[in-house]
Q: What sequence folds into this?
């Protein structure tokens, strides 16, 4: 079953974990996108080798260097993607790149807080801003009404730890001040973007992938990466204008801000 019928998709942080699995499942779907743009900080490094190997096997996969904490890097990647889109729009932007921190109140400092804010909040905002012209083209060129991921959408990878309402339930599991605060800010960014982009018919949603066995989630996590991505892609395929601005989990349940 093909979860999303879309012509083009861009995934940030695609060299490992959730990002890499997103790329793999798009490539092996029944009706894969015509163009899949995978970005990571260092494609030539050890972490980019898997993507380099996939590029050799799949002509619809394009790999670009992009550090979401570096505005110049984002602009350069957008220029390169634009040349490959060749006037066509970008249907789906998945802001997956992000970093973690286990800082508690006792050992946290301003540098750690700002570092995570820069990567987890400012980065997705600048990426969205840089690729917005191509999302607009995709939305304007569609002859279908409404909003959906196959038309034009921004998906921000959030976390349950970003939920202020749920904090009293989850805080004892992991205090993680910088991570929690940055994901709460990302949720606000998503909400703002959804209102701003609504007039352009561009969907915008924040999604929690679950507690997943990745470098971030750790080996004790109950959810396999492949299962999380399968679930998320099913959710993305069902989104409409009714969902824009929502905070959902990988099974489609709405989460409280």
A:
């Amino acid at each position: 079953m093909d979860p999303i019928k879309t012509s083009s998709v861009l995934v940030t942080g695609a060299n490992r974990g959730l990002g890499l699995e997103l790329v793999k499942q798009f490539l092996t779907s029944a009706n894969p996108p015509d163009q899949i743009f995978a970005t990571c900080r260092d494609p030539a490094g050890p972490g980019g080798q898997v993507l380099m190997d996939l590029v050799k096997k799949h002509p619809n996969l394009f790999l670009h260097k992009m550090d979401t904490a570096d505005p110049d890097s984002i602009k350069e990647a957008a220029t390169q993607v634009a040349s490959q889109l060749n006037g066509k729009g970008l249907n789906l932007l998945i802001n997956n790149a992000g970093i973690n921190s286990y800082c508690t109140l006792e050992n946290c400092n301003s540098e750690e807080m700002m570092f995570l804010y820069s990567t987890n909040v400012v980065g997705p905002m600048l990426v969205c801003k840089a690729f917005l012209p191509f999302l607009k083209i995709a939305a304007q060129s569609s002859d279908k009404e409404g909003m959906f991921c196959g038309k034009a959408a921004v998906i921000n990878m959030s976390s349950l730890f970003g939920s202020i309402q749920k904090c009293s339930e989850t805080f004892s599991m992991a205090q993680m001040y910088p991570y929690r605060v940055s994901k709460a800010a990302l949720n606000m960014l998503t909400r703002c973007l959804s209102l701003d982009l609504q007039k352009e018919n561009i969907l915008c949603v924040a999604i929690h992938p679950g507690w997943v066995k990745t470098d971030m989630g750790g080996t004790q996590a109950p959810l396999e990466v492949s299962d999380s991505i399968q679930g998320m892609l099913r959710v993305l395929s069902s989104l409409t204008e009714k969902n824009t601005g929502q905070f959902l989990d990988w099974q489609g349940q709405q989460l409280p801000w």
In short: Strands lie at 8-11, 35-40, 61-65, 92-95, 153-157, 203-208, 247-249.
